[in-house]
Amino acid sequence: MKRRDFLSKAAIAGLAGGTALLAACNDDTKKAEGGKGEANQAAAPAQVGKTVHWKMVTTWPPKFPILQTGAEDLAKRVEVMSNGRMKIDVYAANELVPGLGVFDAVSQGTAECGSGSPYYWAGKDPACQWFSAVPFGLNAQGLNAWFYSGGGLDLWDEVYGQFNLIGRPMGNTGVQMAGWFNREINSIDDFKGLKMRIPGLGGKVIARAGGTVVLLPGGEIFTSLERGVIDATEWVGPLHDLRMGFYQAAKYYYTPGWHEGGSCLDVMFNKDKFNALPSDLKAICEAAAAQTNMQALCDFEAQNGAALKELVEKHHVQVRKLTPETLADLRVLAREVVAEEATKSPMATKVAKGFNEFQKQWGSWADVSSRTYFDTMSIGV
Amino acid sequence: MKRRDFLSKAAIAGLAGGTALLAACNDDTKKAEGGKGEANQAAAPAQVGKTVHWKMVTTWPPKFPILQTGAEDLAKRVEVMSNGRMKIDVYAANELVPGLGVFDAVSQGTAECGSGSPYYWAGKDPACQWFSAVPFGLNAQGLNAWFYSGGGLDLWDEVYGQFNLIGRPMGNTGVQMAGWFNREINSIDDFKGLKMRIPGLGGKVIARAGGTVVLLPGGEIFTSLERGVIDATEWVGPLHDLRMGFYQAAKYYYTPGWHEGGSCLDVMFNKDKFNALPSDLKAICEAAAAQTNMQALCDFEAQNGAALKELVEKHHVQVRKLTPETLADLRVLAREVVAEEATKSPMATKVAKGFNEFQKQWGSWADVSSRTYFDTMSIGV
Predict the structure, then answer these.
(1) Can you tell me the distance from the alpha carbon of A169 to that of A289, in angstroms, rounded to the nearest whole number?
(2) What Pfam families would the database entry show (chains A, B) (predicted)?
(3) Using an 8 Å Cβ cutoff, are A368 and A165 in contact?
(4) What is each CA distance from A241 to A179, A218, A233, A346, in whole angstroms?
């Protein structure tokens, strides 16, 4: 999913209104965060002072699994850790502001915080995109290492700071799928003339490969695919894709998601409001964001496997790998696209430089360690 | 590193006293967690009630990078989030109790919490080992998904609950290296007669391959390798290995760490003491653990790359991959070892079953997603 899904209220309404999507909603993902009222033998809870009451606006439909429920989890964590001194009411897209309005709403302080994914705000500064995902870029583990230990968060602070915002990772989809296709993709040439719903940088790559990029709100994708208005679409991964019912409309499910190798979801805070918090509440917000970031990735990782199994075993979906040659050709085009994007603002140039340097250094280690171990570990699966 | 490093005070002293290791200590890793005293315009901090003052005992030498400093980071996070209502004094190995005494000290309440790695306590219940790492088992991402979203933490609660303990992940080394070798390893046969310092389950595999497993405290490894008392040793990864100076004593640095594909470090709480905390402090401890868990893995991931570069470019270390055939042969032996270990206690049987089921399901997804993307992403590095 990318920001162009959110270019209008209709887009959000489409997402929220899709029956397949509604079927995806899962109340079970709201986890209890620990009860109240047990014996307090050690320390009195914190209840002095005024209560901080904040609003969080998101880009997600109500109950959207892991993403909207993750935002709600963050709010619950903050409330429990602060013993009720800080409450955050979470509003899904359109409940308070439209999905596309989240950035401005938080920037201006209409809401104190919000959630989405940084690349939705490429129109504010193209630099935002590197904090979500760029084609053939860092995966979730690499992205988190860049953020927390490689200077990424400092760059993010600089970019969002231009808009009176502070952004923090609050989840990651893990490696997405390349998408659903009504025809086989055996080489880069098979993208020629392909009508594909794929927004953002991925779409620019497909366009460069000769495809026709179609932009559709979430709620219209299934029907368009079923009726042949489009030949292919990307979405997220097995968990979310299963619930969209794409397997009923397309035969081939391709991997890997070269365009989104681990898309970061964020929480953004109004900078003035955040800076006015006392140190303990600031730290609680930071910790809740990090905890939710970890939890969301784990939920995707744990649940995608079962969904993939259901897609294959129950719905007879054919999982295919894009060939190394196809991926190599896409990567050449992606590098052109990303390099061009990096020239579009001074911050984009700076962030792209930091990202690329980190990917090179971390990648050389990941190549020796994680990649090699994956090969070893996977043989026996 | 495994529990047998910690079988005596001498082992810990050896680790702590090694000059190479002392050179590894880095005060910069102590990060500021946010200042105090800024304007509190929104809510008064929490300072009512008695202060909770806890002791944390660890298995690590003072200032041991990422591991001991991570434990100190956790304590700082808890203090800031609780606005000083909860303070944890952190003691390195031997400062209050010996490294091997941590489990009992926390179980009995001599200290309220502690840090190490679960497999150090295999002697208490062999089931503990699955929460750290088993040969060819889940990597860091899989292990975290199992813990937080696949039932792993429930099993951990059950195992540690037998000892009045609660355990939580508080870091992960990521994929370790297979070790330093004075001779080439081209097949499983090359382990025959090899004198290798490799404790734990990995050691049992090497013994089954015909190697001679030598147990040595950390401080004696370098000298033993240099003098030919041993032919090979495993340790952690580039960051820690560089500072141990192994490159001066062995020529070949093999990957991947099939025996520790992502070893989990933990924080353990005395269960009675933890349960007596008010809900907010419980949640703060949980969040601080999760945040530290993420940070430690990111620190390893971000810093290992630079260390590996230094090893290769400055010290001319030869990085070699174990051949797929060697790894396949090791895996056969590892499965025998792990299966035997799973029969050694009722909880080990139960935990191994849960672990294996999760690895199978998650692995099928990781194979399609993360592994495939790694191949794609890495081509360009």
Answers:
(1) 7
(2) DctP
(3) no
(4) 9, 11, 10, 37
Contact A277 B42 (CB under 8 A): yes
Q: Any chain B CB within 8 A of the CB of A343?
A: no
Q: With residue B264 as reference, give the H or E element that holds it.
A: strand B264-270
DSSP classification of residue A96:
S
Does B281 contact A48 at a Cβ distance shorter than 8 Å?
no
- Please give the Cα distance from A33 to A66 (Å, whole number): 16
SS3 B56: strand
Q: Do A377 and B51 touch (CB under 8 A)?
A: no
Name which of B83, B141, B351 is nearest A370 in CA terms: B141
**Chain A residues in contact with B335 (beta carbon < 8 A):** 380
Min Cα distance A107 → chain B (Å) is: 18
Predicted TM-score (pTM) of this structure = 0.89
Peptide bond into A217 cis (omega under 30): no
Question: How is the beta sheet containing A86-91 ordered, strand by strand?
Answer: A86-91, A52-58, A113-116, A264-270, A165-172
ipTM value for the complex: 0.88
Q: Does A43 touch chain B (CB under 8 A)?
A: yes
Token duo for residue A184: 């086989």
pLDDT tens, position by position, A133-151: 999 999 999 999 999 999 9
pLDDT at residue A43 in the model: 59
pLDDT (0 to 100) of residue B43: 59
User: Tokens in use for B256?
Assistant: 């991947």
Question: Hey, are the CB atoms on B43 and A51 less than 8 Å from each other?
Answer: yes
Tokens of B59: 């298995």
**In which region does residue B296 sit, left (phi positive, over 0), alpha (psi from -120 to 50) or beta (all else)?**
alpha
Asked if A371's CB is within 8 angstroms of B363's CB, the reply is: no
Running DSSP on this structure, what letter comes out for residue A322?
A: P
Residues in chain A: 381
Q: Is the peptide bond before B256 cis (omega within 30 degrees of 0)?
A: yes
Structure tokens, B168: 């939580």
How many residues appear in chain B?
Answer: 381
- Contact predicate B218/B272, CB 8 Å: no
